[in-house]
Design brief:
mainly beta; Immunoglobulin-like; 3 domains; seven-stranded mixed beta sheet; 3 helices; 23 strands; globular; disordered N terminus; binds copper (II) ion
């Protein structure tokens, strides 16, 4: 009891002297924040983000979060007006060590009340951040103090628990990592430790502010409020052990897929997973409100795609009302229509790949639907897509982009230029378990045009 009273006293004193709020305007991936005070640990790297510095006050780690409107560059040429913390959405990553006493000052500069829930933490009930249930909401212009001991090592996040649908649709969220205090048999040492949040927005092409009433039909699928090609690559040294921590604060699941390597899920927001539950896979589904940490040895050199496996999540905003035009020949017709409608453009008769090369007029402040120049042409991606770059000569601790992989001679897929025989085709109409009654019925060819569909998220 004495300890609890003492802590309360410290808290009141500290409130008189708020730590200076630290803000970040750049959307770049900041180098790891090596701790200068407190217990040492191996810091994480937040993709297109940063870690919030703290100050030590009588052995307590003090952080100052400022909830406020921010302008986030989601990709070069595309800015969004979001809400976040300390100048960015998501807010800064908070890194502490198991057993640390943590005090977080939260100043509300939003036009409405807010609160902060510390997702996954063991803490006193009154610090859990559910407005109305555990605390009064933090009114505009006020500062509240949260204080607890980071009891479990692991991968966590924070977000409001007040007008959640609006505030999360506007980008209010952040990552939290609690490093182990001593060697933990379930937590391996790694050379690279990355983290990011999955988030989603509904921003009409040409506008800046998310539509906050959208429930499922989001049009921008982002990692840390960045969309490809705005998401930085994950740059590692050959044979590094790599950990990637991912949290999902969107309203749908994301099967996250890594090329060229197998990984294990070594932890969730519930903590490190028991070794007996780990198996190798190349895709892990991260459901809504879940966190996953994956680990692997980066032992294959190259530029490996790393992305959500839902193909519409690796595209940026587009009109949905586009019928499938594959196989429809527009030649001739298009010219006549253009005479009437000069802006008319034929879309997708050979698939959608053409769109990446079209000089298509798009409104100002719109991300192209699929883009990203690679060494061999357009990558034809958007949204939740990045690249794991594994290099022999990447220095330990160096996170700089090494550029494109230089493939050794004879190791790239190439065009066959020999004679082309007409391929033999199997001519069967398909088998059937029951004989057809009418032997002479004319064959039927079914043609399907995909209907417009808004419901598949
Ligand atoms: Cu996805």
């Amino acid at each position: 009891m004495t300890a609890a009273v003492a802590a309360t006293t410290v808290s009141r004193v500290a409130m008189a002297a708020l730590p200076e709020p630290i803000s970040q305007v750049s959307p770049d991936t900041m180098p790891p924040l090596v701790p200068s005070t407190g217990r040492p640990y191996n810091p994480v790297v937040t993709l297109n983000g940063w870690t919030l510095p703290w100050r030590m006050n009588n052995g307590v780690k003090e952080f100052h979060l400022v909830a406020e409107p921010v302008v986030r560059q989601m990709a070069p040429g595309f800015k969004a007006h979001l809400w976040g913390y300390n100048g960015q959405s998501p807010g800064p990553t908070i890194e502490v060590v198991e057993g640390d006493r943590v005090r977080i000052f939260v100043t509300n500069k939003l036009p409405e009340h807010t609160s902060v829930h510390w997702h996954g933490q063991r803490l006193p009930n009154g610090m859990d951040g559910v407005a109305g249930l555990n605390q009064p909401a933090i009114p505009s212009g006020k500062t509240f103090v949260y204080e607890f001991i980071a009891r479990r090592p692991g991968t966590f996040m924070y977000h409001p628990h007040a007008d959640e649908m609006t505030q999360m649709a506007m980008g209010m969220m952040g990552f939290w990592v609690t490093h182990p205090k001593v060697k933990n048999p379930l937590i391996d040492e790694v050379q690279r430790d990355f983290c990011f949040l999955l988030n989603a927005y509904d921003i009409d092409p040409g506008s800046y502010t998310p539509k906050t009433m959208t429930m499922l039909d989001f049009n921008l699928w982002s990692w840390n409020s960045r969309i490809f090609p705005g998401i930085d690559s994950l740059n590692v040294r050959l044979n590094d052990k790599v950990r990637i921590r991912i949290g999902n604060l969107t309203m749908t699941n994301h099967p996250i897929h890594l090329h060229g390597h197998e990984f294990q899920v070594t932890g969730t927001d519930g903590g490190p997973t028991p070794k007996s539950t780990r198996w190798y896979e190349v895709t892990t589904d991260v459901a809504v409100g879940q966190m996953r940490q994956i680990e692997f040895i980066a032992d294959e050199e190259g530029d490996w795609a790393f992305h959500c496996h839902k193909s519409h999540h690796t595209m940026n905003a587009m009109g949905h009302d586009v019928p499938t035009m594959i196989g429809v020949d527009h030649r001739g017709v298009a010219k006549q229509i253009t005479n009437l409608l000069p802006d008319y453009m034929v879309m997708g008769e050979r698939g959608m790949a053409d769109m990446t090369e079209m000089e298509m007029p798009i409104p100002e402040n719109t991300a192209p639907m699929m883009t990203g120049q690679g060494p061999y042409g357009s990558v034809e991606m958007g949204g939740m897509f990045s690249v794991l770059k594994v290099r022999k000569d990447q220095k330990p601790g160096d996170y700089k982009d090494p550029g494109w992989f230089k493939h050794p001679a004879g190791t790239v897929a190439y065009e066959y230029t020999g004679p082309l025989a007409e391929p033999e085709r199997f001519q069967s109409e398909g088998g059937q378990s029951m004989p057809r009654a009418q032997r002479n019925a004319p064959p039927v060819e079914v043609q399907v045009r995909k209907p417009v569909d808004h419901s598949d998220h």
